[in-house]
Design brief:
This protein is α/β, with parallel strands linked by helices. It contains 22 helices and 8 strands. Helices cover about 55% and strands about 5% of the residues. Helix 12 crosses helix 13. The longest helix has about 50 residues.
């Protein structure tokens, strides 16, 4: 970023974002601290040495600038402009009324241990699935961050369409998407099972041979804009290339802030210094006379529903109920073999086995790997839709009827209007639900942490930066331990607040110190309680050891052999109730009790 662009950014955050100078830290220093953390992924301790500031001061102003950036998201997100009829751009002139392209990308994050299964992708990484939408100028239009890595791209898109601050698509316009999304109103996907990627058209000898390949070539050349946009984003901001140790809520806001700052740089600098011009050269253009593209005349785009407009001629397999039942049984066998990972994702080679088993079970059916993949995808989508519906208020699961039930039609109509797609109808039997639940597991993506630019701005306006400061303290962000941070706390409070040592701390700082002391007291109490429990368990183990030794002596005194004593000891270890009954009897009764055990 140039010096001139940095000055404009500081002025924007001051006037529109509510950022202000502090007593000892001015706005440019605050912004530079923020940009260094994003661009170089520097740790809190490194910036303490570089700027001669405490860890709490670094954390405080990082969160303040982050909140200011989110407050100006409405100014930094680009406005989509449709491709005009007289467009001469060789990439976009074939797609009249197109607004741009969208796709999803994985960004590695750090989450608690209990949430890792939902964030684990099919490649085993802990990531969040980020939906990005850009225009023809490589500027972001909409970003939705926070969905777990196990969620599919189509599910994230459905959420972006149905949420309060949703992705808005004007009437008659559309975005270019890849084959992972549904081809429907507002979203134009390529032909499946046909050459598509840019590398496949890089040389003249691989010219298109039919209208499907020609369409895919033009589609790939234009849609590649979002791939370049993601590549530039991760190249510029190092914090997106490796997991950071902020809370997941802050990590999602950082992703949105990086997209906003990329838009700002591209709008306020003559040339983008990070843009790799070699990406431009990958687009090999061929001169054709014309291309046809029909515009959509549908009225409102408020859902993601399937369409046969481009996929009607695909090779499909019509599944029977018997084939589906057998297929689910084979999936259960793979689960028992351990060939399914977290969040219901099958390991490599699983679909080949499923196709081979189905062809062996139903000779002549011609099952292919793609048929099995599509069937698993449809079953998973139907199960997730039914599970989410059953978990909502007004819905429930009926074990007798094997279906989801709803209280009244008004609740169902409101729910379907919000979802925009109907993958399952309440009242219709779904006997495979419980079996699919064991396959795809309950630890699936739910999107609770998903946030777009407007959502983040509303949270910042509602909560302010003080709450964020309390969430992301230097104990969580920096590399030093808790004892060091507690020892440095008085000095850091004085330096960050810009007040003299003789004055009283503010009410917020006093409340924060009180809360920290209370948490420390509760932690120490918990540790002492756990130590007491361990001592009680140790004492009980010592008593049990003495009782076992006494039991052996008693059995020997009663005339039992060593083999019989060992046999009784094994019985006691496998059945504690027998041991309790043994000690409740008198010495004369114990002998008869032991003989009864030996004769059974």
């Amino acid at each position: 970023m140039s010096v001139d662009a940095l000055g404009k950014l500081c002025e924007l955050l001051k006037v529109q974002g509510g950022l202000s100078d502090e007593c000892h830290v001015n706005i440019p220093e605050q912004v530079i601290i923020f940009l260094i953390i994003l661009a170089h992924h520097k740790k809190n301790r490194t910036l303490q040495v570089r700027f001669y500031r405490s860890g709490e001061t670094i954390s405080k102003y990082f969160n303040k600038v982050l909140s200011s950036v989110l407050r100006v998201q409405s100014l930094l997100f680009a406005k989509p402009v449709p491709v005009p009829d007289d467009c001469i751009d060789p990439r976009w002139k074939w797609f009249k009324n197109c607004l741009g392209a969208l796709d999803g990308t994985y960004i590695d994050v750090t989450v608690p241990e209990e949430d890792k299964s939902r964030y684990r992708t099919r490649k085993g990484k802990i990531s969040t699935n980020v939906l990005g939408v850009c225009n023809r100028d490589m500027n972001f239009v909409y970003v939705l961050s926070g969905w777990e890595g196990s969620a599919s791209d189509s599910r994230v898109l459905r959420d972006a369409i149905s949420r309060h601050n949703n992705l808005k698509i004007p009437i008659g316009n559309y975005y270019l998407v890849d084959a992972g999304y549904t081809n429907c109103k507002g979203f134009l996907a390529p032909y499946r099972h046909t050459r598509y990627h840019v590398q496949e058209w890089a040389y003249g000898r691989n010219a298109p041979k039919n209208f499907r390949e020609y369409f895919n070539k033009k589609h790939s050349s234009a849609r590649n804009i979002i791939e370049r946009c993601f590549g530039l984003l991760k190249k510029r901001w190092a914090i997106l290339r490796s997991p950071c140790f902020y809370q997941i809520k802050t990590q999602n806001r950082i992703i949105i802030a990086c997209c906003l700052l990329q838009n700002f740089i591209r709008l306020n600098m003559d040339s983008d210094p990070e843009e790799d011009m070699s990406l431009e050269n990958e687009q090999v253009l061929i001169r054709e006379e014309h291309g046809d593209n029909q515009d959509s005349d549908d009225e409102i785009i408020d859902s993601v529903e399937g369409s046969n407009e481009w996929t009607g001629e695909m090779d499909r397999h019509v599944w029977t109920d018997e084939e589906t039942e057998v297929f689910v049984g084979f999936m259960e066998e793979l689960v028992i073999e351990g060939r399914i990972a977290d969040a219901g994702q099958f390991r490599p080679g699983s679909f080949e086995k499923l196709a081979a088993k189905m062809n062996e079970r139903f000779p002549g059916s011609g099952f292919q790997i793609t048929h099995c993949k599509n069937k698993v995808k449809r079953l998973k989508e139907k199960y997730q839709f039914a599970a989410d519906m059953a978990a909502c208020s007004g819905f429930g699961w009926d074990d007798v009827k094997q279906c989801v039930v709803v209280d009244n039609k008004e609740i169902l109509a409101a729910y379907m209007k919000k979802q925009g797609v109907r993958l399952y109808t309440p009242g219709k039997p779904f006997p495979l639900y419980t079996r699919l639940e064991k396959i795809f597991c309950k630890e699936r993506a739910n999107g609770d942490a998903a946030v777009c630019g407007n959502d983040a701005e509303e949270e910042v306006q509602m909560n302010g930066s003080e709450e964020m400061d309390e969430e992301d303290t230097d104990i969580f962000n920096s590399n030093h331990d808790c004892s060091e941070s507690l020892l440095q706390q008085p000095n850091s409070v004085a330096s960050s607040s810009g007040k003299k040592q003789g004055k009283k701390p503010s009410s917020f700082k006093a409340a924060k110190d009180t809360k920290m002391m209370k948490e420390l007291t509760d932690t120490l109490k918990y540790v002492f309680d756990q130590q007491g429990k361990r001592l009680d368990a140790f004492a009980q183990a010592m008593v049990n050891t003495r009782e076992e030794k006494k039991a052996g002596d008693i059995l020997s005194e009663l005339g039992f052999t060593d083999d019989e004593v060992i046999f009784i000891a094994l019985k006691f270890s496998t059945n504690p109730q027998l041991e309790k009954m043994f000690w409740s009897l008198g010495n004369s009764q114990k002998a008869g009790f032991i003989r009864a055990i030996l004769h059974t």
